[in-house]
Amino acid sequence: xxxxxxxxxxxxxxxxxxxxxxxxxxxxxxxxxxxxxxxxxxxxxxxxxxxxxxxxxxxxxxxxxxxxxxxxxxxxxxxxxxxxxxxxxxxxxxxxxxxxxxxxxxxxxxxxxxxxxxxxxxxxxxxxxxxxxxxxxxxxxxxxxxxxxxxxxxxxxxxxxxxxxxxxxxxxxxxxxxxxxxxxxxxxxxxxxxxxxxxxxxxxxxxxxxxxxxxxxxxxxxxxxxxxxxxxxxxxxxxxxxxxxxxxxxxxxxxxxxxxxxxxxxxxxxxxxxxxxxxxxxxxxxxxxxxxxxxxxxxxxxxxxxxxxxxxxxxxxxxxxxx
Length: 323
Fold this sequence. Notes:
The protein is an alpha/beta fold and about 325 residues long. About 30% of the residues lie in helices and about 30% in strands. It folds into 2 domains: about 1-135 and about 290-320, Alpha-Beta Complex (Quinone Oxidoreductase, Chain A, domain 1); about 135-270, CATH 3.90.180.10. It contains 10 helices and 16 strands. Strands 3, 4, 5, 6, 7, 15 and 16 form a 7-stranded mixed β-sheet that branches. The longest helix is centred in the middle third of the chain and has 14 residues, at about 135-150. The chain is globular, with a radius of gyration of 19 Å.
């Protein structure tokens, strides 16, 4: 089978389409024929070894010191079940499914075997493969920070920093679904998009620094990685919560060691990969409450161009690859 492989860290052109062995599903696995996948910010960071401050050595220890141990990137996919292991009970051949492979990677390939118990779910009838492939990375992260960590309540004021990215565009929609009054921070070029997703106010970060605002918010979620408790404290309401979805190592350790500060709370860390979260996102998508934003769609043989576009850090929502 064909896969997009990289053997060293570097610019987009370290990725090339190569022939690799086709996986054979184990007893508890399904084999998915991939129809669509994405190039995410996580793929860019792993491919280029560009990670938040403090994580460099840890990422190299996990991913490979001199070169990647896992040569095929990709954290989310959508496709058809082609084969199932003898112990699989929830999926059948022909099922349309989507998955969050997360740290397991391997979605940038024609086939991917996935454990039945992993973050794998059926695609809702109304969704295309392209939409389903873009559903999970941003959606699962936003769900984790809004529902599980900051526990957004109806009527609360929520600010999403980086509201036009994959996580941010999902967070705006999910916060609105939870009944919040949403403020989005993005560039002026993306203001109309963010309003269309449910933000009642949009702040152009090139013209106004929200941390200097006279307003306060009950919840702030930073998806960019350029904020901290120190910068956000004065605009967090008493009892407010800060979610650092792209925090550096110091912020992550600090949030674990001291989550409560001055009557406010701080959360950081990587969201888990859970099938139940994918099922929630699928239900919301089927109901029209959440629709993944797709910036561009590239064919598989142009995956290098997709990497280059993601590396600009100007993508709107998700960049999808079709196979």
